[in-house]
Amino acid sequence: MIFLAQYMDIARFIQVFLVQGLTGLFFLFIAYKILKRESKGLNLILSGVYLSV
Where are the transmembrane segments (predicted)? Predict the structure, then answer.
């Protein structure tokens, strides 16, 4: 069985799990703030773009 720790050093672990996870949470937060403001057409489009990225 191949273990994940054999092929993943600390820099790659930080990039994959920490940085990309925080970036994903940031995009979800921005989409939430846009939708929370009002449910107009432009806000729905902008939040859709943020969530699709």
Answer: 12-32
